[in-house]
Amino acid sequence: MNRSILVLSVASAALLVAQLVPYRVSNPPVVEGPEWDSPQTEELARRACFDCHSNETDLPWYGGVAPVAWFVRHHVDEGRAALNFSEMHLAQEEAHEAGEEVSEGEMPLRSYTLLHPAARLDAAEREALARGLERTLGSDD
């Protein structure tokens, strides 16, 4: 058997077997959202934050295909652990940092906005979201 065919066959088999690992994003029920300071803040947060920071993750088709699904699940788990807009009844210890992270360009992640153009914020949107998150969630100041 040709070596390249063997490598391709093994890689294909491994990819197929990887689909059996049930490590995918799930969306638990939304329990309690924040009391938004304005509809604009909520709209911007839904656009730029909710896929990783809520129980309303909207996955693209490739988000359910391993190994990409594993990468996505890991990032969503980290995002929800830091701030989950769907579970505001629980302590959100890092919520007060959200506005600052947006203002400084740390959020949304560049790796996310590369594949999700709707989440890209222009300067005015970034500033509006940062201020709105500070009014909604508090800030370090």
Total beta strand runs: 0
- Report the span from N to C terminus: 67 Å
How many helices? The count is: 7
Number of domains: 1
SSE run: HHHHHHH
The amount of beta strand, in percent, is under 5%
* Average pLDDT level: 90
Largest sheet: none
Overall outline: elongated
Rg (C-alpha, Å): 18 Å
What portion of residues is helical?
Answer: 40-55%
Low-confidence stretches: none
Structural category is mainly alpha
Keywords:
mainly alpha; single chain; 141 residues
Summarize the structure.
By secondary structure, the chain is mostly helical.
Characterise this structure.
- This protein is mostly helical and 141 residues long.
- It has one domain (23-137).
- 51% of the residues lie in helices and 0% in strands.
- It is built from seven helices and no strands.
- The chain has helices at 3-18, 39-48, 50-53, 68-82, 98-103, 110-115, 123-137.
- Helix 2 (39-48) packs across helix 7 (123-137).
- It starts with a helix and ends with a helix.
- 24% of the residues are buried.
- The mean pLDDT is 90.
